[in-house]
Amino acid sequence: MEHSLEIKGQIIADSVAVDGVSILNVDSQKTVFSTGDGSFIIAVKLGDVLLFSALNLETVRRKIDEKDLKSGYIKVAVLAKSILLKEVIVNESSISAESLGIIPYGQKKYSPAERRLYTATSGGGIDGLLNTISGRKAMIKKEIIVEKKEQLLAKIDMLFEDSYYIETLKIPELYIKGFQYYCIEDAAMANALRIKNKSMALFLIVKLAEKYNEIVTLESK
Are strands 73-77 and 5-12 parallel, antiparallel or unpaired? Predict the structure, then answer.
């Protein structure tokens, strides 16, 4: 069995805080956080995928190669982003695929939580204005929810190629990200992804694709 090695890293960004960035090893499911200067230490193996995420940063994925292991050091550049939510009070149902930047604004939403949010906020005019989250407690709570969703999205993204969605599941290319979000909202699929049960995920995704395509067909009429 291949042993994990600890490597050091540095997160760099222009004019944005890089402390408290979550670094998730998608393969081992171990998470560490960067310090004030953006440095971190994490255990990895060849081919492991690291997911860098924070409220103020665009999510970055980095695959560990032989060069990284040999040097024992990686440098990761990140970009700043502004995340706004449609509600000041943070709860899981208020975090949408759109607010997380997973799918473009205006794209149809097909999960139960997304449908409720869309119905409540699609009146147009100033009703669509967003409020910025404030308060450390609210930020931490949101960060936990975001991290869980990003972990599941990273796993489903690694399991299937775009060609599988388009050719086998008949999902339009434009809706692949939306469909992935729809999938992780399904409790059975989310559990299959967490325990890395690819056979179950393959079985469930076919059923979910059938339902999703039915919704797309109905709403296109």
Answer: parallel
Report all structural domains of the chain as residue ranges with CATH numbers, in order of start.
Answer: 5-77 (2.60.40.10), 92-220 (no CATH)
**CA pair distance 160, 166, nearest whole angstrom:** 11
Query: Which of 57, 58, 27 minimizes the C-alpha distance to 42?
Result: 27
- Phi-psi domain of 90 (left: phi exceeds 0; alpha: psi -120 through 50; beta: other): beta
Q: Which amino acid is at 14?
A: D
For residue 29, give the amino acid letter.
Answer: Q
CA triple 204-112-138, angle to 5 deg: 110
User: How far does CA 180 lie from the centroid of its chain?
Assistant: 10
At residue 73, the pLDDT reads: 95
136-159 helix and 187-194 helix, angle to the nearest 10 degrees:
80
pLDDT band at 205 (very low <50, low <70, confident <90, very high): very high
pLDDT over 80 at 85, yes or no: no
More confident residue, 205 or 111: 205
Q: What is the pTM of this model?
A: 0.41
